[in-house]
């Protein structure tokens, strides 16, 4: 799609790189885009570990200069121990990172070119720490835009889902961050001391997977940095943004529900059809919107005291998708924008759908159920989204509604209530809602998971008494979707979902469902609520001039398949190979050549939960031909489990040119307390 690039902005823009001091004496590397003006201006901060001088540079170039051209100093800062920042890498969102963030905000507010008012924005990690710092309420921080982020680090992040270990992303993201943290600083920015700086970082590494598996229930480790623990602490104005194809979208619903009641902080929510991307990037699924213009309304209101009308918008603006056939990518989805002035909305009614049939039904899914789940973090790639769910439905027990005689719009989080009998102490329940067309095709609408040992709370482990019958309930992820007349609504239940969910020992036994005491509750929205409401509209996408990075792999078509399933029929073994497609090889205008090759592999035998194994392999190289600098690294991470323990093995090897400068292997056994 076309993204407009203005020929000129209201202000001419200058850029400089500088170092921001921290309370402990280290300095963080920063890049500042400022408008040319004699007047002090508000400051916008994006604070990430993702290397501003290379990895995020293409995205940064499209956003920060745009904000500067509209009268803001826009600043991108590397987190301590990452990119070109001094210090050693720590855990994600640890106390040091957040304390540094507070110091950065105070420093920016005190600069002569600053008005003293700071806003903060970011997607994913940057959205997380924006929200976390807003909950610490530094004086200068007046507003944030948090995109694709979470207020609940335990139950709505990459680690756990419904109390179950997220095999597909806990391991994959820990492996990704191990490869990120192992990358060297760039001598073009830090000088000749780059190698010593690199080696000090490498010696301090500890794979994230160790810490994350040490905390298998919601405890103080996860409460730290989770805004849901104390919404009242948030003082800044919050614009919360998500996409229905992003795993963090439920945070938007929680923020618009709880901030008005508990904090009083101004808040607005926006959920579109998007994946884990900024809404103006034009990546599937669309439609994209003029997101920078929309955020400018937010900044002008809260950092410049201008009445932009942004607070006249509904509390929650959300997209309701029309029914669509199953596909792994949608360039554009049909649908419409709706507005709700409060949340929960009086226009939405939780409507029960009884499960047909007298039962009981045994649910004993093969362990490879979930191979067609799609990517946990869709990024807008060709193979991200779930394909036709008919094969997954065949591995599940399904209940279909009658053929719909009218349109049913849902907006919010469905819920299931199930009566189960289980013969083993551990297990998991997976529920999927699908839109079944007259031709039988099945499109995944939403899903949810419950670790049965977490049925009484995510902060405790209560094993099932073998042979006992209990009622359990859990929410599914939020969605905006319209089921048309002539279709059916399907609820599909399974006892396995690999590789999203790490299978419990003994879970191959499954469980028994009593449908007569089980229901699906859908949040049905009354379309009449929109009568007389003003139409919700956005401008067309607009960004600053692209950086001009070349991507040779994409140009030559030499990339491997994004997702490939291999089945060994005789052995009953399934292997899913995933290329995460984070960018591959790229060549920057300043001469930097950056190569990146990653492959994730997930293996399971269809009858054995203890056969599950996840492997992630990375190769990264950074080279500047002119000065002759070439650094590279290789990582390999593997996770498997027996009945009592997880076994994590991580390896890192690094080279300066052809000389090996670092090599280490970590091997940890971690008790399976809940996962």
Automatic annotation (TrEMBL):
Domain Xaa-Pro dipeptidyl-peptidase C-terminal, chain residue ranges per copy: 296-521
UniProt keyword annotations, A-Z: Hydrolase
Gene Ontology terms for molecular function: dipeptidyl-peptidase activity
InterPro entries according to UniProt: AB_hydrolase_fold, CocE/Ser_esterase, Galactose-bd-like_sf, Xaa-Pro-like_dom, Xaa-Pro_dipept_C, Xaa-Pro_dipeptidyl-ppase/CocE
Entries under PANTHER family matching the protein: COCE_NOND FAMILY, PUTATIVE (AFU_ORTHOLOGUE AFUA_7G00600)-RELATED, PEPTIDASE S9 PROLYL OLIGOPEPTIDASE
NCBIfam families (UniProt xref): CocE_NonD (TIGR00976)
Record protein name field: CocE/NonD family hydrolase
Protein source organism: Streptomyces diacarni
